[in-house]
TrEMBL record:
It comes from Bradyrhizobium canariense. It holds the Pfam family Peptidase_M24. GO terms for molecular function: aminopeptidase activity. The keyword Glycoprotein does not apply. This is Xaa-Pro aminopeptidase. Residues 313-537 form the Peptidase M24 domain.
């Protein structure tokens, strides 16, 4: 029998490194991280780490024990898809290749239900023994208190954001949106739940527990789960007894007390089989709430606009300082590494937030910081040297803003590149123009993701902009189909959104959404990227990141 391990503590023990420090997917998003972080498969006397393909650069640099093999699945878009060895379409395909005909697969209690359900279509799945959490305490929370907690720092952040916009050419168009009052956020959630016939919501990620049940995302103690019943009623479930609240013999008994019957939705990309079974959800009609919750958050960003402005400006300042440092070092022949430039980025990020919003705290999320010569895949900074032979230095990073209690307030995701060749600089300038002059203006109310993708592709491959004789440019016969990746996405206190700008996305934008517009160009020792963030309005996107026209 094969065994698939998903428990982060166990994987970190076997990898001999921290997942959040070494890899992208554990920090890229908060609501599906457990579904896309590395797994370990034991099969045929071998142990193999299973990575999504985007982790190729990080996996190469992680120096895992040599007794653990590496296999990749879910291909990441590059212009050289066969250059880095085999990659499987799905996790199931990867396991099938390693299984040598075996079909019995035991999964651990932490494997998210989305993954477990998918694997059960191919394998005969069994589960490790599941232990109930024992007595739990159920505490009802006030919707008004949660709303007050989330809004507490908006006035001071609004003043800081206005100061940061002083030189913005669209300042006068952005400023009125800083004063838009928040609508009833839970009423919006109720409408989504009602449309799906959902009677109860089970939340397990710290982001969504914060947003619905008012527990700060970086609170010292994480709840076991939270429950929500349409109408504004939320409960927090704590393992053990003590404090205020009602004690139950098990988490199942607690959930049954507030919702004995009806259709349940939960975060299938996060909840492990063990908790799923302990709550009795395996005996209930249970559906996924992941996309629904992303949609809810993505539509509710406008009240936090000031935090997004501070975050994107902080990221831009930190990137500019790091790239200036790296460029000067390379020009003068000074020996520096990616980590040297990263320290400049890190120090500047924290100094910027301390200056403009000293009452807030800044944290890191995805931090792709690498030269093209080392890898064309997104990767964390290492001690790799920076010189003209590095080809370029790409920074595709974001930051998180928290209040002193650990409440997540906003986030960012932008990209910049230091190109070290004429060909690289020409493409970088093309991508910068494409983002500022085409993609951001295309982010208007009612615009569909596929239309934005088509406009972005035309800005690069159209006859008027196509670079002539550039060795890094790829002349695709069908650019819309060939550039098979997004040119942007929304932010909803999370990098993973319900709407991305791809050729297959038919969802449309709404006023007040926060959108990131980008190009990524991984090819031949280069990974060139440019990305800005904008506010969606009826007349088009308003650039929140840059003051340049």
């Amino acid at each position: 029998m094969m065994s698939l391990h998903a428990d982060w503590s166990y994987i970190e023990q076997e990898f001999e490194c921290g997942l959040r420090d070494r890899f992208l997917m554990p920090v890229r998003s908060f609501d599906n991280a457990k579904s896309v972080t590395p797994f370990i498969l034991e099969a045929g006397g071998r142990r193999t780490a299973l990575f999504v393909h985007v982790e190729h650069g990080n996996a190469s640099a992680a120096m895992l024990p040599p007794t653990i093999g590496q296999v990749f699945y879910r291909p990441y878009f590059t212009f050289e898809p066969t250059l880095h060895g085999p990659v499987y379409a799905t996790l199931s395909d990867a396991i099938c290749n390693l299984a040598q005909g075996e079909r019995a697969l035991q999964i651990d209690a932490k494997l998210p239900m989305t993954v477990a359900t998918d694997l059960a279509r191919t394998f005969t799945v069994s589960h490790e023994e599941v232990f109930d959490a024992g007595p739990v305490t159920l505490r009802q929370v006030s919707a008004a208190a949660t709303a007050e907690m989330l809004a507490a720092w908006r006035p001071s952040a609004g003043r800081a954001a206005q100061r940061l916009l002083t030189r913005s050419p669209v300042r006068d168009r952005i400023t009125p949106y800083l004063d838009v009052p928040e609508q009833d956020r839970l009423a919006a959630l109720d409408r989504l739940l009602s449309a799906e016939g959902i009677d109860a919501l089970v939340l397990t990620t710290r982001l969504n527990i914060q947003e619905v049940a008012g527990v700060p995302m970086r609170a010292k103690r994480a709840p076991l789960a939270a429950f929500y019943i349409p109408g504004g009623s939320a409960w927090v479930v704590e393992a053990g007894t003590g404090g205020s609240g009602k004690t139950f013999s098990s988490s199942r008994a607690a959930f049954t007390d507030i919702c004995a019957t009806g259709r349940v939705a939960c975060e299938m990309d996060d909840i492990g089989f063990g908790l799923f079974a302990s709550l009795g959800l395996d005996a209930r009609e249970t559906v996924a709430a992941d996309i629904l919750l992303r949609r809810w958050r993505d539509h509710n960003t406008l009240p936090d606009l000031a935090f997004y402005i501070i975050a994107t400006r902080a990221s831009a300042r930190a990137m500019e300082s790091a790239l200036e440092f790296a460029g000067n070092a390379i020009d003068t022949g000074r020996a520096v590494t990616e980590m040297d430039a990263y320290k400049v980025y890190f120090d500047t990020l924290h100094a910027f937030v301390l200056e403009v919003a000293p009452e807030l705290r800044v944290g890191k999320t995805l931090t792709n910081f690498h030269s093209g010569a080392r890898t064309i895949f997104p990767a964390n900074a290492t001690a790799a040297p920076l010189s003209a032979e590095a080809n370029m230095l790409k920074l595709d990073t974001g930051c998180l803003l928290f209040d002193p209690q650990g409440v997540l307030l906003g986030c960012s995701d932008i990209a910049r590149t230091l190109a070290l060749s004429d060909a690289g600089r020409e493409l970088y300038a093309l991508f910068q123009r494409g983002v500022r002059d085409t993609l951001i203006p295309a982010c208007k109310v009612g615009a569909r993701g596929d239309a934005i993708h088509a406009a972005g592709v035309e800005a690069i491959w159209g006859a008027a902009s196509r670079p002539v004789g550039n060795p890094l440019f790829v002349d695709l016969p069908d650019p819309i189909a060939g550039y098979d990746r997004d040119v942007g996405h929304l932010l909803g206190k999370n990098n993973l959104a319900h709407l991305t700008f791809t050729s297959r996305t038919q969802d449309a934008l709404s006023e007040g959404m926060i959108a990131c517009c980008e190009y990524q160009w991984p090819i031949a020792g280069h990974a060139i990227a440019y990305e800005d963030t904008c506010l969606v309005t009826p007349s088009g996107g308003l650039n929140l990141t840059s003051d340049e026209s």
